[in-house]
Fold this protein.
Amino acid sequence: MSVAPIKVLLVEDDQGEADELSGLLMQAVHSVPMVITQAQQLSLALEQLTQTSFDIVLLDITLGEGEKLSGFEQIHTKAPTVPIIILSGFQDATLAIEAVRRGAQDYLVKGQIDSPLLVRSIRYGIERQRLLLEVQQSRWQQQQERELLLLEQFPANQSTAVASKLYGSLLLRESVPDKFNQLVQQYANIMDLALEQRIYRVTHPISEQLREVAQQLGFLKASPKDVINIHTNAIKQKISDVPPAKAQAYIEESRIMVLELMGCLVSYYRKYHLAFSQVQHVRLSDK
């Protein structure tokens, strides 16, 4: 059974040193298959990371402007799940510790690297990153499960004084399941817009669309529990089969959305209740 080769991105501006490092890797290619891609500039490396999925990055610490780890920060930000090994021409224990603290998997000094050491560092780095991502995903999932559980335990009879006179006893998912599912999908679409707004710094009419949802909920005499049910169903739909970081982003954006939606619904009920009270007052006056 063939083993998939390790895809290595070697970021080194000195062609001689890049060739030397590639040679060290090729010495082990018979036992550890590898595909090596070279980039002599940080900008080219960042471009490569958008086009290809790499298993590991070997990064010359001198690349990048500003402080010594600026190049690492750019690569790590661009591909946060890809392990990175720092390559340096000098021994600096303080810098090595700082690099690992920020997320680098190893710090190797050029001139002190042989083929077994480099290959072992690559393999260990990939495995440590895999385990780290598993731990992070497990923690995120536990956090998401706790948050959803708390929301689902939101009391069905929780209400405001105004709303309690307006909405019925049956939940929307029971009384009008088709409309409930439609609202879940509408809310999930707004979550997509909110996430797009966060990532790409674009502007979407999030508040306006949430007010439209609130108006539909108010017309249906929805309760706060209905809002929570729509919220949790939309979250479950969005975070299934997505990377942990994206799931976490959905969770964070939705926390703000559900509060805003609840506020819009309360405002709708206040307005509705005020108009209803005025009509009742006129009728009583006529009598």
In short: The radius of gyration is 28 Å. Residues 156-165, 278-285 have pLDDT under 50 and may be disordered.
